[in-house]
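Bumping with the actual sequence this time:
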Amino acid sequence: MIKKLLPIILALLGTGAGVGAGLALKPEPAPEEHAAIDCVPVEGDVVYETVEEEEVPSTTEYVKLNNQFIVPIMNEERVEALVVTSLSIETVVGGSEVIYAREPKLRDVFLQAMFNHASLGGFDGTFTERDRMQTLRRSLRDAARSVIGGDVVDVLITEIARQDT
């Protein structure tokens, strides 16, 4: 008879021990936000005032260039791949009119910079590697500054894709 009851007793003891351990090791409940009951500060208490965050006026704006740039990647005398990119220019506030007025010249210098990057192997292999992208961004920023001047803060590569042929 004890042989039949022993497995049941051990199962009950094991279950009880598991439940007890679970209750003992249960994490603390997340603190709930309650409304303060006593809102009157006691003498000596530090009173903190909430200050609304002021919106800081932005000193730059972003100008998205209308069309994508398509750069062919050549291998000997054959097009091996195409790289398609979209660019935006970060400029000082009010600089967008100048950028749109000089967009044809900007597109020309950007394409030349990307052609140079491609001819140096910048779009080969893992072309989105950090150092390669920094080199491309730097050359695009320098090209934009040669046309627009110091109002250009940075050139952002918003999209980039390589399509092998």
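The tokens above came from a reply further down the thread. Residues 65 and 100 are 8 Å apart (CA to CA).
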